[in-house]
Amino acid sequence: MTDFDTALARLLAQANPLGSEVVALEAASGRVLATDLKARGAAPRTAVSAMDGYAVRDVDLSILPARLPIASVAFAGRGDLPVLPSKTCVRVFTGGPVPTGADRVVVQEEVGRDGELALFATAPGPGRHIRAAGSDFEAGDVLLAAGTRLGYRALVAAAAADVAALSVVRQPRIVILSTGDELAAPGQSLETAGSIPESVSFGVAALVEASGGQVLDRRRLADAPDQLKAAARLALDTADVVVVTGGASVGDKDYARSMFAGFGLDLIFSKVAMKPGKPVWFGRAGRELVMGLPGNPTSAMVTARLFLAPLIAGLAGRDPAERLAWRDMILTEALKPCGDRETFERGRRDGDGVAGLKVQDSATQKALAGADLLIRRRPGAPGLPPGDMVPVLDF
Ligand SMILES: Nc1nc2c(c(=O)[nH]1)N[C@H]1C(S)=C(S)[C@@H](COP(=O)(O)OP(=O)(O)OC[C@H]3O[C@@H](n4cnc5c(N)ncnc54)[C@H](O)[C@@H]3O)O[C@H]1N2
Ligand code: MOO
């Protein structure tokens, strides 16, 4: 049996970004840049006005009041640079090009009008209201470095670089195989004696997607070795990571590992000294990674959260450590002593603190829904009173 930290270290050694691919900007949300993103052009390309008003030379306002004819109008989108003849002004709007020679834009609230004449009665304030060409960025500037996750703010910068497509880390493709004769599609289990709704793959798929992966396929499989082998072959042909649920333990029909044996499965760890989730295993079959999750739903989700989420994040080019951000939180209720296996107790937020759930059964599905935190407990740790600090992870 491998201890938890060793298993995690071995897993993280495999959690490296996959290759890159080019995607349209529209499809880039949440992806990770594979290369630096440089601006095609400067922003702004010419000096533009920051306000609606009148572009003027200071010398033309040296005697006040001043009356200046409006030489032309510059809305945002005007393609040529306006000319500012001496002793005139140019009517400008926010984002419109400011003529060369203009010292400032006087905001329109400070300017009167008499037909095509603009009337300047008072000295303008200190603001010039001009955004210089290239003041945001110059052509060729790196706007986003390789490794940047394209969240909603970064996407604005990416679009501003004036590119239509981006080189991003390839999204890991995942196939989930749920094994067990007893499994039925939700909505159909009551119709067959002995069957139960297959629940785990729904949680695993959502966790994979939240971690940056793409679920290609999800299959329910009976405990029939030939069928399992065929499904393993198909999954390895299409996926980067195959996740198998159930059949991880020592039962007579626990085939999860053996179904990959013919495809060169090399185990990286198998059985971890943790509770719940002891039967979790991880390996490589050729270029593909395979993870076996225990069938008990809470065990499956705890191990998926602790091992699968950082693995997918790392393959997707994200920092796996983001998915392992343990922090200390105050206990609001006492905790019992920990047994001899490292334990990931399910907890819930309780005000600013955390309380362990009453139900700690690894098969529970109802209590799982309310378990928003994991509390990490070292083997042999003593019971703890309310007020003590414990390490927690968002679950
Ligand atoms: N003699 C031993 N028995 C067991 C051991 C052991 O070490 N020695 N380990 C126990 C532990 S710990 C766990 S966890 C379970 C996990 O075993 P498996 O991975 O082989 O899981 P199954 O036997 O296939 O299923 C366990 C349980 O979960 C239900 N299940 C399975 N898949 C799903 C699914 N996709 N959706 C919903 N429910 C599922 C299944 O019906 C079983 O009730 O083994 C212990 N036994
Ligand atoms: O350790 Mo199992 O994964 O709890 O029931």
Automatic annotation (TrEMBL):
Statement: the UniProt record of this protein carries the keyword Transferase: yes
Domain called MoaB/Mog: residue spans: 175-314
Q: What is this protein called?
A: Molybdopterin molybdenumtransferase
**Which CDD domains would you find in this protein's record?**
MoeA (cd00887)
A GO molecular function held by the record: metal ion binding
Q: Which Pfam families match?
A: MoCF_biosynth (PF00994), MoeA_N (PF03453)
Q: Which cofactor does it need?
A: Mg(2+)
Species per Swiss-Prot/TrEMBL record: Brevundimonas mediterranea
The answer to keyword Ligase applying to this record is no
